Amino acid sequence: MTGTPLIEAVDLHKSFGEKKAVDGISLQIAAGEVFGLVGADGAGKTTTLRLLVGALRPDAGMVRICGFDMANQVEEGRAQLGYLSQRFSLYEDLTVLENIRFFAEVRGLTTREWLPRSLEILEFVGLVDFKDRRAGQLSGGMKQKLGLASALVHKPRVLLLDEPTTGVDPVTRQDFWQLLIRLVSVSGAVEGEGDRNIAVLLSTPYMDEASRCNRLGFMRQGRFMMEGTPGEIRAVLDGRIVELRGQPIQLLRKIAQEDQDVEDVRLFGDRLHLRVREKRARAVIGHLPARIQTSGGSLIDLRQVPPSLEDVFIALLEETP
Predict the structure, then answer these.
(1) CA dist list (Å): 153 to 108, 124, 298, 310
(2) Quick one: 224 and 248 in the same domain?
């Protein structure tokens, strides 16, 4: 991370009864960064975001948003925040523009302030031609874009997004990410904001989205199993992933699982990813073809490949108690 952090959290803890939802999370995110919280349901991602936005008070730890202590300066901190929850609540009987107006006026913006700003934001997210359409008539992807527009209307410095693309189609996910990339770009995305880049923190269950982030935190049971750039995280398994293609796939899987040099076997589409012991990739590639042939299998391809984030995440889940 470079620059002064717009989001800072130190040793956050939050429990619900005996359940530790967040257990010692620390974060620093600067302007121009997209940080991804990655984990399965129940890992603590949403609770972490709610602690940062001030919707929950931590049992211990500290949160600062743009330098404001969220324990004592919560309103000042919230003024710097845009937040899109997992289930963004639109007023379906209101139009797109009326919805944005509502959220703008809740933030204290006057008509002179919110109207030109809203039109700029709607142009940015691709909804300006739908400004008079009722929100209930929007597609799922359009509703997500309206949620983003509502979160941006007051010019926040920090954007918190809780699984913003869950339930939308792949094309809409791609469009949404293009918007995020433009938001944090050096040149700025919305008129007059080129010199005030924002910090984005989002949660996602998707590894393809995680790879787009500047930095990641892999979460489990309220803790970070690992934190770093996508490249740093993938490097943990450098030289230890072998890709196997052939038929029948279940036979190949059984043969690989019985190999003493193979730690784990996972199905990736029409192929298998074998996580091998350190420095044993060449040995596996050398002896596995003969075993496959002897067992009546057919080998199409067997080669070492770069590890994916999913490979690393699975390995971490197995190692973390």
Answers:
(1) 11, 11, 58, 35
(2) no
Q: Is residue 319 situated within a structural domain? A: no
CATH of the domain at 274: 3.30.70
Q: Which residues contact 310 (CB under 8 A, 6 or more apart)?
A: 207, 268
Distant-in-sequence, close-in-space partners of 19: CB < 8 Å, separation ≥ 6: none
Cα–Cα distance for residue pair 246/250, rounded to 1 Å:
10
Put the strands of the sheet holding 60-65 in their side by side order: 19-30, 5-16, 60-65, 68-69
pLDDT tens for 107-157 read: 888 888 888 989 888 988 889 999 999 999 998 888 888 988 988 888 899
Can you count the helices (H) and strands (E) in the chain?
A: 11, 14
Rounded Cα distance, 262 and 243, in Å: 12
Nearest to 44 by CA among 21, 61, 15: 21
Tokens of 102: 């509502």
Within a domain: 316:
no
Which structural domain range is residue 254 located in?
239-305
Residue among 134, 57, 47 at smallest CA distance from 97? 134
Give Cβ neighbours of residue 214 (< 8 Å, ≥ 6 apart).
Answer: 33, 34, 35, 229
User: Strands 34-38, 199-204: parallel, antiparallel or unpaired by DSSP?
Assistant: parallel
Q: Quick check: helix, strand or coil at residue 181?
A: helix
Phi-psi region of 9 (alpha: psi -120 to 50; beta: other; left: phi over 0): beta
> pLDDT by residue (tens digit) across 234-249?
999 999 999 999 999 9
